[in-house]
Amino acid sequence: MPYRFAPPLSRRALLRAGGAAIAATALGGTGLAAPTAGALKAGLAAPRPVSADGDLVEVELVAKQRMQRILAEPAAPSPLITYADHFPGPVIRMRKGQRLRATLVNELDEHTSIHWHGIRLPNLEDGVPYLTQPPTGPGERHVYEFTPPDAGSFFFHPHCNTVELLGRGLAGVLIVEEPDAPKFDADLVCLVKDWQLNKDGSFGTFLTDRGASRAGTFGSVSTVNGAIEPVIEVPANGDIRARLYNIDSTRVVDLRVEGAEGWIIAVDGNPLPPRRLEEGWPMGPAMRIDVLFRAPAKAGQTLRLTNVYSAEPRPLATFRAVGPSLPNKRFKPRALPAADIPEPDLTDAPIVPMAFSATAVAQSFDGLDKAVLAGLPAADASCLSAKTFWAINQQSWPEGGHEHLPPPLLTLEKGRSYIFELANLTPHLHPIHIHGYTFKVLSSDGRKVVPHHADTVLLEPKERLRVAIRADNPGDWMFHCHIIEHQDTGMMGYIRVA
Ligand SMILES: [Cu+2]
């Protein structure tokens, strides 16, 4: 059964705390492909890869404030919050079958946790404070340990006060490599993220009533890997696998590699029959695509990464060819090895309505046991929003954060298959994310859907989208919008699988 908030620490958590003398293992070499190491301009470090050769990959993630320059001078460096010395970092690279042991060291002045986005892991490792683990307080450690069952491009981030912590950079990359993937000449990570920065380099307001109740508050500066329009070096004439992440809190992007033929080969880490990037794949916050393209043939030639989800295409980064040109070979997008996601049985699956609405048409807190609430610890001031604007099935996640656990949105029978009909009753986009599962995306009433697997699906205004899961992973699983201001103002709940 899932973790229950009762004793201050579960027995398991105590056992872990006792054995927490973990050494950080940071072996270079097999992370970012060699041609890309140190390739970002202006002294920016490339993401530092963490990997290991044995069955276990160990990493220590120290969450704390670190100063880092995002804006050019005369602005000051900005007070980021990161898991490693430099944003973006770390990039954990593992082979499928390896086990990850990650120790969170909390050097913040608020409690936190790590959620492993997109990983079908045991519920106790899912990193949702109060729901799946006790919050990790200032000065405390928490060890996560699991073997990711699927290859793919994943990431991790906190699940409380996310609007500020993710807004200030608290996220890392987890890549699980396929044992039998086609060979690429380079394998890049591009994290697209806006920052809410004032001109002097200080952070502005992460959550506004106006933004939270509409499309969200947009950042003031766009970056890739923490750099404004960086130049990313690629081997000339090489076949490049670019793992494109939208880790922004708000913005929807639709990316292109201008000047090259781009092919989408994975969505949220899940292989997709190769599909032309030019056909478009809008990504809400937390969504990812893996794209294959051929680098320019000669050193010095460039391609541009742009976002076309705006009136004018906006440049985000430049790929510049370097080195001797690799030998000519046929450019042929090939499918990645298929993932092993449990197939839902659609003949037997009940259709479960999931309605996303504004609170104006919702009633919240029905069924919440006030006596239970009274027995819980006082609201943690670092983990709350003051208002509720959104609801799922007319339930809003209670104000004040995770410590006020409402009942589950619904309870599913373990082993059964379900179709969720996600109904967007609002005029805004909502990227809907489920923890611990991968959706099979089936159909929409408003557009032609490419069948695919995803952990986050972008729900268009007024759309009804059907997705399916086989409920084989027991526990309490968060289900929420990944526009962080929406998540933090009510559009969040959990699904119990028992
Ligand atoms: Cu939303």
Automatic annotation (TrEMBL):
It holds the Pfam family Cu-oxidase_2. The keyword Manganese does not apply. InterPro entries: Cu-oxidase-like_N (IPR011707), Cu-oxidase_C (IPR011706), Cu-oxidase_fam (IPR045087), Cu_oxidase_Cu_BS (IPR002355), Cupredoxin (IPR008972), TAT_signal (IPR006311). Keywords: Metal-binding, Oxidoreductase. Residues 76-179, 405-497 form the Plastocyanin-like domain. The keyword Metal-binding applies. PANTHER family: MULTI-COPPER OXIDASE, MULTICOPPER OXIDASE LPR1. This is FtsP/CotA-like multicopper oxidase with cupredoxin domain. It comes from Azospirillum picis. The lineage of its organism: Bacteria, Pseudomonadati, Pseudomonadota, Alphaproteobacteria, Rhodospirillales.
